[in-house]
Amino acid sequence: MLKKITLTVATVFALVACGQHDGATQTSASAMESNVSGSLIDRINQKGTITVGTEGTYAPFSYHDASGKLTGYDVEVVRAVAEKLGVKVEFKETQWDSMMAGLKAGRFDIVANQVALTSPERQKTFDKSEPYSWSGAAMLARTDETRIKNLADIKGIKAAQTLSSNYGEMAVKAQAEIVPVDGMAQAITLVQQKRADVTLNDELSFLDYLKKNQNTGLKIVWTAGANEKLGSGLIVNKGNDEALAKMSAAMLELQKDGTLKKLGHEFFGQDVSVK
């Protein structure tokens, strides 16, 4: 999910996509301090410490578990990359709205927060590693739904959506009958109550919901094609080509040795590192 517009389930998700989503957490004082001296590649080559900007309130990507430990898919991917590189990692929890500015200002070396880096403006300033997750639009319906095989099939079908989201726009374009909602939680409830037939949102949001909630009576009936999905990667400032290459190589190793697949199943119930 990428940093993009999505709908969230109140306390269950703290999600929304990316780039892909809007987050909210208090920036710590340490996150506002200048980064340690030396270049990113120097710290990697010297087996030093790299600093990582993340939200810490964006489950299941970056959040605190019941014990208070910072964890999440993105967090554990970073830890695995750091282990491959032989470096230590320090996370600096930061509001999403100020995260990319903090990276540009050198408050941390990397951002790991489901960023797809799709806007031309950001692409001029930042670079992205090999993706570690892929996501696109998906559709959720009741398990007894048999009419829907693709997006075109929702013409005339009741779709619970917020009209302000890109998913609402998709449903309107597909000529669905829109049932207005405030967010993903309400949309899911209406589908379960048969007051709507489907709802569209980010695939990773749905996977997270279905993994955390058993016996929902719901299933994913459609997902966007591979060529329509966006990949999230580690984000660095431009000019760090050598460091970025090392991180991308480590990411490919993690995919090859099954680490990313394992983490995907842990947090989503399936491998999200491939299209």
Automatic annotation (TrEMBL):
Q: Which InterPro entries match?
A: SBP_3_CS (IPR018313), Solute-binding_3/MltF_N (IPR001638)
Q: Which keywords does UniProt give here?
A: Signal
Q: Where is the signal peptide?
A: 1-19
Q: Does the keyword Transmembrane apply?
A: no
Where found in the cell? Cell envelope
Q: Tell me where it mainly resides.
A: other
User: What Gene3D superfamilies does its record include?
Assistant: Periplasmic binding protein-like II (3.40.190.10)
**What domain of life does the native source organism fall in?**
Bacteria
Q: Transmembrane residues, as ranges?
A: none
Which CDD domains is this protein grouped with?
PBP2_Ngo0372_TcyA
Sorted alphabetically, the Gene Ontology cellular component annotations on this record are: cell envelope
Q: Which residues form the Solute-binding protein family 3/N-terminal domain?
A: 49-271
State the similarity comment: Belongs to the bacterial solute-binding protein 3 family.
User: How is this protein named in the record?
Assistant: Solute-binding protein family 3/N-terminal domain-containing protein
Organism whose genome encodes this protein = Simonsiella muelleri ATCC 29453
